[in-house]
UniProtKB/TrEMBL annotation:
Belongs to the ADP-ribosylglycohydrolase family. It comes from Aquibacillus halophilus. One of its GO terms (molecular function) is metal ion binding. Mg(2+) binds at residues 52-54, 270, 272-273. Its cofactor is Mg(2+). InterPro entries: ADP-ribosylglycohydrolase (IPR050792), Ribosyl_crysJ1 (IPR005502), Ribosyl_crysJ1_sf (IPR036705). This is ADP-ribosylglycohydrolase. Gene3D superfamilies: ADP-ribosylation/Crystallin J1. Keywords: Hydrolase, Magnesium, Metal-binding. Binds 2 magnesium ions per subunit. SUPFAM superfamilies: ADP-ribosylglycohydrolase. Pfam families: ADP_ribosyl_GH.
Length: 318
């Protein structure tokens, strides 16, 4: 269990840090000067190995799950991150999404956790997708693999998204992603994990009228030829569907952790989040040893992150 958690979380964090210095830089610029290693400064003027809100919010959820599933506690951790600099690499927040900020403002005003997330079309940024990975390990411990398609599991994933992003589209994206990660944990190949997860999600949502109309937004990843699409047809914006597509495409079209996350970063635009999302999957699939040692050495607060992973592992065996 410990190795599974560390593989995924460190895979996410390292990829996030690779993308931070070049966030918002366009693809053409990165084609001329591609990221090949950890960089210093750049977009946010941060030292090499600095991670963003993607990792911070992931750690908030990771730490909270060590005490069980408690939506109030998760939101309190998010609040500590935003207002106190907890779960940050250097004690301060330098990046936050609009929908996430609005959700935390609602929580600060006493709104219940599951009523804080935005529900409009414009609330489909990738802010819940980027930090949902830790729920995979909670599900791994509490549910057998054959139970993963049960409605209870889908509802739980939806609720974790809803804390900041309550639109059905964001919930579907999170469910597909968590399912892919879970299948990788259980030893499936990349291709089978992705196809199985997409099939399971479509099969589940087609019987739920609240979600059926949203499935059209995910039809591209259902195509058998999706991984063969040229890079020019893969978007890397902060839109949740773009991020999910880019992550799946990078995972399926590469054969190592390093190649996968560098491909994600060099797509440009929302570099840290696209890389973080696929980095979690690649970390699970390829393992911690696949991550270049220099990248792990450069990562800020590596021991702190590993400590939170161990804390979650211990909570499962107690």
């Amino acid at each position: 269990m410990r190795s599974t958690i560390v593989n995924g979380i460190m895979g996410l964090c390292v990829a996030d840090a690779l993308g931070v210095p070049v966030e918002f830089i366009d693809r053409e610029s990165l084609q001329r000067n591609p990221v090949v290693d950890m960089r210093s400064y750049g977009t946010y003027n941060q030292p090499a190995g600095t991670w963003s809100d993607d990792t911070s919010m992931t750690l908030c959820l990771l730490d909270s799950l060590s005490n069980g599933l408690d939506y109030e506690d998760i939101m309190i951790n998010f609040h500590k991150w935003l207002n106190e600099g907890a779960y940050t690499p250097h004690g301060e927040v330098f990046d936050i999404g609009i929908s996430t900020k609005k959700a935390l403002e609602r929580f600060s005003k006493g709104i219940p956790p599951l009523e804080c997330g935005g529900m409009t079309e414009n609330d489909n940024g990738n802010g819940s997708l980027m930090r949902i990975l830790p729920i995979v390990f909670y599900l791994q411990f509490n549910y057998r693999s054959e139970e993963m398609a049960k409605a209870e599991v889908f509802h739980l994933i939806h609720d974790i998204s809803t804390l900041t992003h309550a639109h059905k589209r964001s919930q579907i994206a999170c469910a597909i992603y968590v399912s892919i990660a879970s299948n990788l944990v259980y030893g499936m190949s990349k291709e089978v994990a992705v196809s199985n997860s997409i099939h399971t999600a479509f099969d589940y949502y087609k019987n739920d009228l609240e979600f059926t109309n949203e499935l059209n937004h995910f039809k591209r990843i259902k195509s058998r030829c999706f991984e063969q699409l040229p890079e020019s047809q893969i978007k890397s914006s902060g839109y949740v569907v773009d991020t999910l597509e880019a992550a799946i495409w990078c995972l399926l079209s590469t054969n190592s952790y390093k190649d996968c996350v560098l491909k994600a970063v060099n797509l440009g635009e929302d570099t840290d989040t696209v890389a973080a999302v696929v980095g979690g999957l690649a970390g699970i699939f390829y393992g911690l040893d696949s991550i270049p040692k220099q990248w792990l050495t450069t990562l800020v607060k590596r021991e702190y992150i590993e400590g939170l992973c161990d804390k979650l592992k211990v909570s499962f065996v107690e």
